[in-house]
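Severity: low
Component: inverse-folding endpoint
Summary: output formatting inconsistent between runs
Steps to reproduce: submit the following structure tokens with default settings.
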């Protein structure tokens, strides 16, 4: 089954009615983790999230034998997500790699997204990657350089 209809539905819900379509972390001062969101993402269906002022789609690969997955953060170009990431998301999920796709790129949101991924027990924290398009690619390079320091 193609993931595209689910991706479109999750994004529409997240953007049209954030209180219904996107899970929001509790506001009790606890640090945000993927596990702190009320609804866990299901394999083969992206799950819309809102954190650090950003909207993202989180997808887990369909692999019931693994407890933890490598993950890739996808950063869009300056004007936001435009569909270029779809074939990459499909390929990554098919290879058993979880994907968190930010809908708009900012350094703060990207750092928060990486921290969110690293804190999730379903994600192998040492195996995180970043993929960016245009401005998102430049941001990915900046994140790598700042992480190396």
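Observed output (run 2 of 3):
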């Amino acid at each position: 089954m193609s993931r595209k209809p689910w991706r479109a539905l999750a994004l529409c819900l997240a953007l049209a009615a954030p209180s219904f379509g996107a899970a929001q972390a509790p506001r009790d001062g606890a640090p945000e983790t993927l596990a702190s969101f009320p609804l866990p993402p299901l394999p083969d269906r992206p799950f819309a999230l809102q954190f650090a002022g950003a909207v993202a789609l989180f997808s887990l690969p369909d692999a019931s034998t693994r407890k933890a997955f490598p993950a890739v953060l996808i950063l869009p170009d300056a004007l936001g997500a435009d569909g270029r990431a779809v074939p990459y998301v499909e390929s990554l999920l098919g290879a058993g790699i979880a994907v968190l796709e930010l809908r708009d790129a900012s350094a703060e949101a990207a750092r928060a997204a990486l921290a969110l991924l690293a804190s999730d027990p379903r994600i192998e924290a040492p195996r995180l990657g970043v993929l960016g398009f245009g401005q998102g690619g430049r941001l990915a390079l900046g994140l790598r350089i700042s992480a190396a320091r």
